[in-house]
Amino acid sequence: MIYLDHQASSPLLPKVLDAMLPYLTEEHANPHSDDHAAGWRAADAIAQAREKIAGRLGADAGEVIFTSGATEANNLAILGLCCEPVPRNRILVGAIEHKSVLAPARALSERGFKVITLPVDASGIVDLEALSRLLDDRVLLVSVQLVNNEIGAVQPVDRIAAMAHAVGALVHCDAAQALAWRAIDVNALGIDLLSLSGHKTGGPKGVGALYARHDVRVQLRPLIFGGEQEGGLRAGTLPTPLCVGLGVACASEPDDSAVRAWQGRRDSLRDFLRAHEPNMVIHGPVVGRHPGNLNVGFPGVDADQIIAQLQPDIAVSRGSACTSGIPEPSHVLRAIGLDAVACAEAVRISLGPLTTEQELERTAAAFARALLAARAEGRIAVAG
Ligand code: PMP
Q1: How far is the CA of 9 from the centre of ligand 1 (A)?
Q2: Which residue in 180, 172, 370 sits closest to 276, CA to CA?
Q3: Where, by residue number, does the polypeptide cross the bilayer (predicted)?
Q4: pLDDT in tens, 86-102
Q5: Which residues are known to be catalytic?
Q6: If you measure from the C-alpha of residue 348 to the centroid of ligand 1, how many angstroms do you get, rounded to a whole number?
Q7: Which CATH number fits domain 14-250: 1.20.1600.10, 3.40.640.10, 3.40.50.720, 3.40.50.150?
Q8: pLDDT in tens, 13-24
Q9: Ligand 1 and 63: CB distance under 6 A
Q10: In terms of CATH architecture, what is 255-377?
Q11: What share of the chain is helix, strand, coil (3-state, %, to 5)?
Q12: For residue 108, which of 148, 143, 79, 76 has the smallest C-alpha distance?
């Protein structure tokens, strides 16, 4: 199988597995057991992982809270910060945020907060003029992701943060899709709260972290109760192997030449596909997107048909999400102006840093065959 769904989940890096293994086998103590040396060793491993994550972000270890992933980190940032709609009651969220940002924000609108969606342009970039009009001293929080999971758009988070801070609002950034390929310095970006996920960056599934600047951290309220772990902010025994794995996955900064090569292979795939299918459309930004992200549509052919034809050889994903068995057009693609038919035709292809040129040639040939077969089936795209 050629795996081109790295933005959904990336393979575990061998060095991450090596670091985790002792804590899955012989080192099984509870990291919160402070009565014996085995517990101290587990606690020490977690402390080192926390240091690595903080180091990667330019933060202090005390500003890192372990979570089960970016979903929980996003929930903790938004619901944990926005408890009382006084004195500020407005929350601004980007239109193409992940649902783990949009859903908690929506929940707050039932608790007296006014949640306002920030429009994006055809590339998915937040409209800074609209943001400027919406920012005033009623805004408590602005939540904007660093990198989008469907179209790879990169937000100007540093500018957004400067604008938000000028009116005294705080900034949360979902950086789940950024850690694998770019530097993240929370101070340079001016971010107050930042969410991370292990499995988008060569780490394990089931772990992530929330960075909360010291003075913001004290304003957070827990979502999970029942223990004093994470300074009372997140009850529950920390999963030592997962925390260690996240630490190692975070430790290495991606190097520029590897990222350029990654992007170059993505562009080769785009060119191979276009050579087969000149009508192919590309969704999302033309330049400056996630180096592995390609979101394409083949007019007249439903993404479901192509993806089914590609099985079991190639893993790519649909542009539209399936909720409770009902396909619904992606809110991201809708926000950048696609109609329901174009959404149903969208295929997200996400390459990893180690995807090879040879795999891409085979992928392009497989797409050409899949398109022929899908057209021969005679079905036309249906709106989701
Ligand atoms: N935010 C973004 C931008 C994502 O891509 C994802 C994963 N699809 C999440 C949040 C949720 O991450 P996790 O799987 O770690 O909960």
Answers
A1: 9
A2: 370
A3: none
A4: 899 999 999 999 999 99
A5: 322
A6: 15
A7: 3.40.640.10
A8: 999 999 999 999
A9: no
A10: Alpha-Beta Complex (3.90)
A11: 40, 15, 40
A12: 79
